[in-house]
Amino acid sequence: xxxxxxxxxxxxxxxxxxxxxxxxxxxxxxxxxxxxxxxxxxxxxxxxxxxxxxxxxxxxxxxxxxxxxxxxxxxxxxxxxxxxxxxxxxxxxxxxxxxxxxxxxxxxxxxxxxxxxxxxxxxxxxxxxxxxxxxxxxxxxxxxxxxxxxxxxxxxxxxxxxxxxxxxxxxxxxxxxxxxxxxxxxxxxxxxxxxxxxxxxxxxxxxxxxxxxxxxxxxxxxxxxxxxxxxxxxxxxxxxxxxxxxxxxxxxxxxxxxxxxxxxxxxxxxxxxxxxxxxxxxxxxxxxxxxxxxxxxxxxxxxxxxxxxxxxxxxxxxxxxxxxxxxxxxxxxxxxxxxxxxxxxxxxxxxxxxxxxxxxxxxxxxxxxxxxxxxxx
Length: 377
What we know:
Blueprint: H1 14-24, H2 32-45, E1 49-53, H3 56-66, E2 74-78, H4 83-90, E3 95-99, E4 121-124, H5 136-146, E5 149-153, E6 161-162, E7 165-166, E8 173-177, E9 190-194, H6 200-207, H7 213-217, H8 237-248, H9 250-273, E10 286-287, E11 293-296, H10 300-312, H11 328-333, E12 334-336, H12 343-347, E13 350-353, H13 361-375
Parallel strand pairs: 2-3, 2-4, 3-12, 4-5, 5-8
Antiparallel strand pairs: 1-9, 6-7, 6-10, 8-9, 11-13
Helix pairs in contact: 1-8, 2-8, 3-4, 3-6, 9-13
């Protein structure tokens, strides 16, 4: 049997809640399960406002509108990220300014951001890779100094913290993903977390196709109408019902994933001590969510051989992003500021191992054993 790279988490009550949603007669957005998910995020993470969306991509697009991104504006972010991080701002007319990463965490190097800031800079978008927090204190200080908006791409960071604060709740806006590859999923889904109250009312309007429908249902206006730009960013109640079952079990999922992550880390420490691989780094001020377990090998050639070897042993492993600044669209819509000292080199060394809620510790041990066999330790 193949050990897959990922399986969407199933906790047990997804089907029950989906059936409840079906029987309620309300399947479109903003029903009872959507409200429950929003409230759970707000209460758990102490967020001012959370709005469930159809994807993290759409949460980022909403954030770009709220940040008033326009033609010619510049947005700073790492190149080592998913295309949606950049696309959400490119569609608003922005030019992307990529900054190199730290080689240990693969997060944006906060010490290089200031030199990338110009009079056209509008926002900074830190990406919390693998659920490991960026250095948010330094980033927020730069935002205050230059009057910039910080939009956290916390797609991988749900339940992770930085100095006791949940990722997604530190910047002005935060974006979560509930895609099936994430710790908590509903197939396709996301959320916009609003930490600056000035954005709340407009966010509701943007999410409701540019109408003041939310105010109408609260009895604040006697009819709703088109008042701003927007789109249909509401997930269906079926998706929200599935997700709510996951959120109810968030602590259980988080705890087990951490057990899996720690099993990998302890089991592969000998390979690192022998100089065969490099294991993930978790800074002292960070609590991560075990979103992924990756290791780094010597180079691209070795990574290719290792992926092929593990596949022959029925273990599915994958690499990750091709740096955006090296892609066709990345060259058209953005540019690297400064040197690419680590982004490309480190990305070519990185390999992700199977990790999901329903994997067994025995399966993880099998992966560890095969890695030791590959390196003949």
